[in-house]
Write a structure and sequence with these properties.
With about 130 residues, the protein is α/β, with parallel strands linked by helices. It has helices at about 15-25, 40-50, 70-80, 95-105, 115-130; strands spanning about 5-10, 30-35, 55-60, 85-90, 110. Strand 3 (about 55-60), helix 3 (about 70-80) and strand 4 (about 85-90) form a beta-alpha-beta unit.
Length: about 130
């Protein structure tokens, strides 16, 4: 049985790298950390992981990305994989988008960029504790 996955989605590689480093430092090898640079790539990864019977625990997504916005992605993910814990990480989401994600995607939390490492880790821990 492979380890459960935390999926990180952001169109900026530097953000993905930073998130991955912080999570690995905190959680070590408890999880696999997958990254996607777009909503479409994230959906492909989710599909592949599901086909391989890999448990996806949590998804952290940016809001402002080319193509599909983060709230749209989270709603799609929620409709297909309702058990995945969803966190939005954003520098510029409008309140409507956050509210939409809360109502339609069961958003666990919305963190603002630049994020506080402790707040990020605490949010992920509280999400995983669900």
């Amino acid at each position: 049985m492979s380890k459960p996955v935390i999926l990180l989605v952001d169109d900026e590689v530097v953000v993905l790298d930073s998130l991955k480093i912080q999570l690995k430092k905190e959680f070590g090898n408890q999880y696999f950390y997958e990254v996607a640079e777009s909503a479409d790539e994230a959906l492909e990864i989710l599909e592949e992981l599901e086909e391989d019977n890999v448990e996806i625990l949590l998804l952290v997504s940016d809001w402002l990305m080319p193509g599909m916005k983060g709230d749209e992605l989270l709603i799609k993910v929620h409709n297909q994989y309702p058990d995945i814990i969803k966190v939005m990480l954003t520098g510029q989401a409008d309140e409507d988008a956050v509210e939409r994600a809360e109502q339609q995607a069961n958003l666990h939390s919305c963190l603002r960029k630049p994020w506080d490492k402790t707040e990020l880790i605490d949010t992920i821990k509280s999400g995983l504790a669900k």
